Amino acid sequence: MTTQVMENHTELFIKKKGIKRKHVYSILLDVFLWSYLFLVSYKIVYQKIILYLRYPEFNWSQPLVALALGIIVSGIFFVIPSFSIGKTVFRLFTGDAGLPWWKKPYAVFSVIMIIMTFVTGIYMTKASLTEFLSPSGLAGAKRIFTSLLTPNWAIFEDALFAAIETLYMALIATALAIPVAFLLSFFAARNLMSHTPVFMVVYSITRFILNMTRAIEPLVWAIIFSVWVGIGPFAGMLALCLHSVASLCKLYSEQIESIDEGPIEAMTATGAHPIQVIWFGVVPQVVLPFLSYTIYRWDINVRMATVIGLVGGGGIGTMLMQYQGLAKWNEVGLLVIVIAAIVWMMDYASAKIREAIK
Fold first, then answer.
1. Alpha-carbon span 122 to 110, nearest angstrom
2. Domain total for the chain?
3. Is the Cβ–Cβ distance between 297 and 247 less than 8 Å?
4. Do both 254 and 174 map to the same domain?
5. How many whole angstroms separate alpha carbon 26 and alpha carbon 29?
6. What pTM, to 2 d.p., does this model score?
7. Rounded to whole angstroms, what are the CA distances from 275 to 1, 189, 279?
8. Do the domain assignments include residue 136?
9. Which secondary structure element, helix H or strand E, spans residue 161, and what is its range?
10. Cα–Cα distance, 242 to 297 (Å, whole number)
11. Per-residue confidence (pLDDT) for residue 177, from 0 to 100
12. Is the pLDDT score of 13 beyond 70?
């Protein structure tokens, strides 16, 4: 009886704590949205549309003032549940939405936010239909597309060898990334590393390093390695390999976190060593998804190998950059055809392989 009472008190405490946490998340969401609305309204509606400033000045006092106004308005509207979009979002997720969303007062706020976001995007990207349809622009586009559609086949042999170089860059980068990502993925899986504080520290450090590595695009890594080892396919391969390790490790670890815990618990109960548990309880459940992710990553690396060549990573991308810089659009047209053929063949082959291992 006493145990039941304690369990009821514990459950009630957790519920109360969860409600408080949801309130914090709700008001933070409200503060962000209102601050965003005030800042966008000032920068776009007032400075760009009303004052018609081409390049409005930016200083840190503007977002700080918007944040202060957002906090004030959020505090006022938070006591009115129907006007708090944060509270409404959490009600939608918990299945306690009440009236349909279009009958809620916050629906007007949501529509305004969407409209303001699109208006901001148009002004930030400086989209102009006049410039897009200008006579000089259309003449230039016609000249380029005419050259692209009449490729110069005299450089086909060089383009073919550069394409083969690109394929090998992607292949070696993927092959070197597989074992490293495979080992690190077990240290980046929360369900395997949450048993002791030491394991959690290792998990957090591993995740942090992988997230930082993945956040930097392969183009940036290619520039770094081009300075480090020189311009060429080696720099491109290193850039692809490093980014592939981080990306594959994320995919692998998330697959490990979604495995069935039954076999692991059964093996642990029989006294199996942790390495035996991983090898016989985890690996058999993830091997096929790992293969699928790996093939998909190789497909991505083939496409990316073409792009990083534009910054000195070697392969057919380097040729494309050279001819584009010289405005030799007929040669560029041939390179585009070769790149399109490579991408199509790789997409077809990877789809067939993934279909075969399912």
1. 19
2. 2
3. yes
4. yes
5. 5
6. 0.68
7. 42, 15, 6
8. no
9. helix 156-187
10. 12
11. 92
12. no
